[in-house]
Design goal:
This protein is α/β, with parallel strands linked by helices. It has a single domain, classed as Aldolase class I (TIM Barrel). Helix content is about 35%, strand content about 20%. It contains eight helices and ten strands. An eight-stranded parallel beta barrel has the order 1-2-3-4-5-6-7-8. It has a two-stranded antiparallel sheet with strand order 9-10. Helix 6 links the parallel strand 6 and strand 7. The chain is globular.
Length: about 220
């Protein structure tokens, strides 16, 4: 079963809609950008959502103490790191952490092997942004990366291309933000529903003979 993470959540309305439609995880951006949210806002959303789904915080080159404080305060299950964090940085964090690697020049990032993580994000490279760009990369690279661990596919995913992405990359999970938005930070209900339904349809076609999911809360937890 392909896990689904909806990132760039800024309102309780979008959070509830994503969860009602079947999302396994929500992502909250604490890094600079149009989808940035404050810890108090995220704490309220998570409390009001009252869900067993995974709650993830996205950080870029943040101080480890700040990450820990926010994770504890907001009751995040996992943090997703999109900066220049080292392997030692991740291993020292007291909260589960997922590293994001940006794919550049149609090459599998060499750092993946160095980090030795069994689950990681693959996102599109952009000179000016660390995520949420709406750009896609060569999904054949993501397919290659599945030999190194569980791939969380991100970057340029939309309702129109998600089936192709799943067919090519065969990821453990998909992570979408701008592809289901009306504007940065606000989700488009129709796009969001279509995206999730397309993933579910793919799973039903591929895994019709397999058993049911083991639980939404397992999305990014180790």
């Amino acid at each position: 079963m392909t896990r689904i993470k909806i990132c760039g959540i800024t309102t309780i309305e979008d959070a509830r809609l994503a969860l009602d439609l079947g999302a396994h995880a929500l992502g909250f951006v604490f890094a600079a950008g149009p989808r940035r949210v404050t810890p108090p806002a995220v704490r309220r959303i998570i409390h009001q959502a009252a869900s067993s789904a995974t709650m993830a915080g996205v950080f870029v080159n943040e101080h480890p103490e700040i990450i820990q404080q926010i994770a504890t305060y907001c009751r995040l299950d996992v943090v997703q790191l999109h900066g220049d964090e080292s392997r030692e940085f991740l291993e020292a964090l007291p909260v589960p952490a997922i590293k994001a690697f940006r794919v550049k020049n149609n090459r599998l990032p060499d750092q993946i092997r160095k980090f030795g993580r069994d689950c990681f994000v693959l996102d599109s490279y952009d000179r000016h942004a660390r995520g949420g760009t709406g750009k896609r990369f060569n999904w054949e690279i993501a397919r290659q990366a599945t030999a190194l661990g569980k791939v969380i596919l991100s970057g340029g995913l939309t309702p129109a291309n998600i089936t192709e992405a799943l067919c090519v990359a065969r990821p453990f999970a998909v992570d979408v933000s701008s592809g289901v938005e009306q504007q940065p930070g606000r989700k488009d209900p129709e796009k969001l529903e279509r995206f999730i339904r397309e993933v579910q349809r793919w799973d039903n076609q591929i895994n019709s003979a397999t058993s049911a999911s083991t639980g939404a809360g397992l999305f990014l937890k180790h």
